[in-house]
Amino acid sequence: MVIVVENAPPRLRGRLSLWLAELRAGVYVGVYAARTRERIWSEVLALLEDGSAVMAWSAPTDSGFAFESAGTNRRMPRDFDGLTLVQFAPSESARGSDAASGREG
Q1: How many Cβ atoms are within 10 Å of 58's Cβ, its own excluded?
Q2: Which residue among 6, 22, 58, 79 is least enclosed by CB atoms within 10 Å?
């Protein structure tokens, strides 16, 4: 499994370092069973505060993996006939220019 955090509080980063190897700043990797993975994710959710996080793991899906995300992020998971794809939300600047021009995003 891989967990990537952005703007995470030091307490969460320290907690993740107990269970996972931090390959780069905010990028954690490890191999755990589903029950432990869910426990780690619950800790991420409890300690995330204003940051954002995504967790991906190997799964028997068409893509070979599954993922969950938390916090504010432009990337949103969307189901497309059983395949999870990533949709980008419009950026703040694009939303502002659409509102100014009278278009909806």
Answers
A1: 11
A2: 79
* Number of structural domains in the chain: 2
pLDDT 10s digits, 62-94: 888 889 889 887 777 777 877 778 888 777 665
Which among 6, 53, 3 has a CA at the least distance from the CA of 32?
A: 3
79 vs 45, 85, 89, 90, 96, CA distance in Å? 22, 6, 15, 19, 28
63 and 12 inside one domain: yes
Same domain, 69 and 85: no
Round to whole Å and give the CA distance between 101 and 95: 10
Closest CA to 41 of 67, 76, 23, 79: 67
